[in-house]
Amino acid sequence: MKKEPLHSCSQLIDYINRVGFLPLLPLGIDGWSAEEMVDTDCRYHPLPEGGWEWPLWAWKGEILQESGCAYGKFFNGKAAFIAREWWPDFCNYRRSRYPRPAEGSIEEAILTTLRSRGSLITRELRAACGFTGPKMRSRFDAYLTRLEMGGYLVTEDFVYPHDRHGREYGWGWSLLTTPEALLGREACQPHRSPEESRARLLHHLAKILPDKPVRLYESLLR
Question: One of this protein's Pfam families, by short name (predicted)?
Fold first, then answer.
């Protein structure tokens, strides 16, 4: 993988398209995250007067809009980018491991709501599915993570609140949708079996993460 630090959003987009899979934050695999690939001035910095700057965090939405890649909690429940070239095989294999939500389940209700609405930020989706009581947020987030891990749910963009001067602030909210709505139905249905997709994914992971044990590549695809 590239060792020179990246200095701009466009450089990071090019890098994601080259490597195919890139977690946002470190996962314990040296050098395999956007945070580790960007220059230090693009990482998180607390400000002396309070608040923070984090150019990489601010780039997330632009990356999705400009690259056409998928973003979600794809590896061990952690957020990552997947280049459009590799999404069909990833989706194909993951859905074979995470069966489609059962009729009448909360997960089916989440997908049905998104199909009818197109896209919703997390809190709107939670309310639309009736998860409005105390301590409901963590339960609902667990359903979302499983759907993302299964290739049924992705982030389309990020929505930020604005202060009275019209300036964005805060961490932002994920605008969630289905990959079929974002990337197209064909992008989720390659003409390969799940096992063929798995073989392609393992081969590619071995290329971008060389000299790692096979069990590491396999663990990333679980």
Answer: AlkZ-rel
Residue type, 27: L
Helix pair angle (106-117, 136-149), 10° resolution: 80
Measure the CA–CA gap between 57 and 69, rounded to whole angstroms.
16
Which residues are CB-neighbours of 34 under 8 A, at least 6 positions away? 12, 16, 22, 23, 24, 25, 56, 81
Three-state DSSP at 78 gives: strand
* C-alpha 151, offset from chain centre: 10
Q: What is the SS3 string spanning 14-48?
A: HHHHHHCEEECCCCCCCCCCHHHHECHHHCCEECC
Residues 67, 13 contacting (CB under 8 angstroms) = yes
User: Is this prediction's pTM over 0.90?
Assistant: yes
Please list, in sequence order, all residues whose beta carbon lies within 8 angstroms of the beta carbon of residue 131, skipping any fewer than 6 positions away.
137, 139, 140
What are the pLDDT tens digits along the chain (222 aa)? 556 899 999 999 999 999 999 999 999 999 999 999 999 999 998 888 888 899 999 999 999 999 999 999 999 999 999 999 999 999 999 999 999 999 999 999 999 999 999 999 999 999 999 988 778 888 999 999 999 999 999 999 999 988 888 888 788 899 999 999 999 999 998 999 999 999 999 999 999 999 999 999 999 999
Count other C-beta atoms under 10 Å from residue 109's C-beta: 17
Asked whether 15 and 37 are in contact (CB, 8 A), the reply is: yes
DSSP category for residue 129 = T
